[in-house]
Design a protein that fits this description.
two-stranded parallel sheet, 2 domains, 5 strands, three-stranded parallel beta sheet, Rossmann fold, 7 helices, 129 residues, alpha/beta
Length: 129
């Protein structure tokens, strides 16, 4: 199994450097791929800020990559929940933090918007402090 970095996934999604895209595609064709949650977090950030892609495109792109048959994702269930919440309006980083906090009953934050949005999604209780 081969773990990949953010830039490999970004090349696949954006198709913006033909030589690197070809190498990334070859890796995905020849290897069983592992993707860490932190890599997905960074991919979302790069696609949103550097490429200015809208939430819907970013989420769909992440789902396509992690849905490939030869791809394994760290904590797949948490990532899927985070993507669901992201598609419903939560920031992806916040959604991933909340989805990864499953053993906790509550999540503390100074972010009032996060608390409000999380309560609407029936996510883990966010205590706005």
């Amino acid at each position: 199994m081969l773990a990949v970095d953010t830039n490999i996934i970004v090349r696949l999604v954006t198709n913006d450097d033909s030589k690197q895209v070809a190498r990334a595609v070859a890796l995905f064709e020849q290897e069983r791929i592992f993707i860490c949650k932190t890599v997905l977090l960074e991919v979302e950030w790069v696609l949103r800020f550097s490429y200015r892609l809208p939430r819907e495109i970013v989420a769909a792109s992440l789902r396509k990559v992690i849905g490939l048959g030869n791809v394994a994702v760290e904590n797949q269930d948490e990532v899927s929940v985070a993507l669901d919440w992201h598609e419903q309006g939560l920031d992806f980083a916040d959604a991933l933090h909340l989805a990864s906090s499953g053993r906790a009953k509550r999540f503390a934050s100074f972010d009032q918007k996060l608390a409000k949005r999380a309560s609407k999604l029936q996510a883990i209780e966010v205590l706005a402090v």
